[in-house]
Amino acid sequence: MTAGGKSEGSEAAEELEADKIRLVMALRRQGIRDGRVLSAIERVPREAFVTGSFVEQAYDDHALPIECGQTISQPYVVAYMTEKLEVGERMKVLEVGTGSGYQAAVLAQLCRRVYTIERYRTLLNDAVKRFEILGFHNITAQVGDGGKGWPEQAPFDRIIVTAAAPEIPLELANQLKVGGIMVVPVDVDGEQGGQMGGQKLVRLTRHEDGANVEELLPVRFVPLVEGVARES
After folding, report:
1. Secondary structure (H, E, C), 173-207
2. Any residues with CB less than 8 A from the CB of 232 and at least 6 apart, and which?
3. Which of 19, 47, 57, 205 is paired with 102 by a 20 to 30 Å CA distance?
4. Domains identified in the chain and CATH numbers
5. Which residues are identified as catalytic?
């Protein structure tokens, strides 16, 4: 117990809650206007998706490292991508790149069902445990090659990709419903990993006779890699 009668655990929880409120206010100042997205960010405990000393930084607005050399995305990027996805409550959403599970948890607050694919079994297993503990029952996850999507569950209303592709992944775009939206980071000028030209976030909207592509903002994501990862 501390001198004021509070346990260290309760003080830490209060500090995290205050950090969360500050983050949500900062996201609003940065231009995130969708109240449903901000509410979803507020309801999902980001500290549950990071480990060790990084828990104290859970609500700092930057990416953090997770297992398998991957990252949990910057909260602003999560909020921005989610807002641009325009998710409705009856929609079915595909996420490519489960990672820690944080983005899927945010989406689960907004739609009917999230299908999420991860190439690292370790990451997927940890994410599924978090979903179970936190009571996110509308998320279905599997290990697989994210670039191939989830054809057995297609078509999807929305697709979000959390790794950078060399170009717009047409195999994923073809799994969208007509009128569906995909948000995906793409390497500028097709440079894998974006070493020369960086990466840009794009939004693709599928139509009966093709698709409209809109460039959004520069980003930095891990590359979208083919196949399922081999882990030691």
Report:
1. HCCEEEEEEEEEEEEHHHCHHHCCCCEEEEEEEEE
2. none
3. 205
4. 61-219 (3.40.50.150)
5. 73
